[in-house]
Amino acid sequence: MTDAAPAIFVALEASALGATIRQSTWLYMVANVGHIVSLVVFAGAVAVMDVRMTGALAATSPGHVLRIARRFAIAAFLGLVVTGAVLFTAEASHVITNPVFQFKLALIALALLNITWFEYFTAPKVKAVPPLTPLPSAARMAGFISIGLWIAVAAAGRTIAYL
Amino acid sequence: MRLSLFVFAVAALLTGAAAAHHGWGSYDASKPVTVTGQILTSKYENPHATLTVRGEDKVWTVTLAPTSRMTSRGALADMVAVGKTISAYGYPSTVQKDEMRAERITVAGKTIEMR
Questions:
Q1: Which residues from chain B sit within 8 angstroms of residue A24, using beta carbons?
Q2: CB–CB contact B1 A157 (8 Å)
Q3: Is the bond preceding B47 in cis, omega lying within 30 degrees of 0?
Q4: Is the CB of residue A100 less than 8 Å from the CB of residue A154?
Q5: Cα(A8)–Cα(A31) distance, integer angstroms
Q6: B40-78, pLDDT tens digit by residue?
Q7: Which of A113, A110, A118 is CA-nearest to residue A149?
Q8: Which of A18, A39, A139, A148 could cross-link with A53 by S-S, CB 3.0 to 4.6 Å?
């Protein structure tokens, strides 16, 4: 416990929930494994969409690829949030003051902003494009930004334990 | 296409590394220490169980293993409870003063690996 953290995170770590997570022999482990499993599924689903938007898999229908892969990405993202919250609660006051964790949160915010922009402005234009037809450059851009940001999120996430 | 493949190869490497937990990098394996003494405080908690032990020279913070691993190897909470005597072989932290991470511990005549 570190008092350098905002009071709410100190309280979260000190809460009965925080203690339960730390003292359970399986809860923390399950959250840890679940976070990685969710990450793998999320990375896979995002990769499929991003690769398609950057011009690969050109013989597929972009609208269909997005529709199917999006479901997996959303489900896996929810898994990441839930398991991440468990891991965070156990050490909230330490993790929130970790600069790499703060950087990771900022990167996630940027990546979600990229998704929001893409879904509102670009996806509607991409949806009905037939296979083997070039996509708008905004789609290519969104794909590359997404790839770069999510890789950075993964790298930052793993670095939390070492700083 | 080629760039995409490269990017995903890098991504695969990074996410693969995420399977390991926090490592031994910040401990100096060239200066092993053995801390023997009474357990003053004991936290049988995740991500790692931690003790404070009154060693011969000073009070050490001794970092052990995740509780699920310790339980499966027979290092139960009551074996590392306050008041018990422990001998911990491990490496001093290069970051946190008076902290060491145990490679193995001996309690009640039983030696248990932590790694």
A1: 46
A2: no
A3: yes
A4: no
A5: 22
A6: 999 999 999 999 999 999 999 999 999 999 999 999 999
A7: A110
A8: A139
pLDDT in tens, A84-107: 999 999 999 999 999 999 999 999
Asked if residue A32 lies in contact with residue A87, where contact means CB atoms within 8 angstroms, the answer is: yes
| The token pair that represents A162 in the structure block | 């070492």
Question: What six digits make up the tokens of A88?
Answer: 């965070």
The ipTM is 0.71
Please tell me if residue A155 touches chain B, with a CB cutoff of 8 Å. Answer: yes
Tokens standing for residue B91? 């490496």
Higher-confidence position of A63 and B10: A63
Q: Are strands B33-43 and B50-54 parallel, antiparallel or unpaired?
A: antiparallel
Alpha carbon of A44 to those of A39, A129, B4, B11, B35: distances in Å? 8, 23, 13, 10, 46
User: What secondary structure, in 3-state letters, does chain B show?
Assistant: CHHHHHHHHHHHHHHHHCCCCCCCCCECCCCCEEEEEEEEEEECCCCCCEEEEECCCCEEEEECCCHHHHHHCCCCHHHHCCCCEEEEEEEEECCCCCEEEEEEEEECCEEEECC
A25, A40, A148 member nearest B71 (Cβ): A25
If residue A65 lies in a helix (H) or strand (E), which one and from where to where? Answer: helix A62-90
Bridge partners for B100 per DSSP: B62, B92
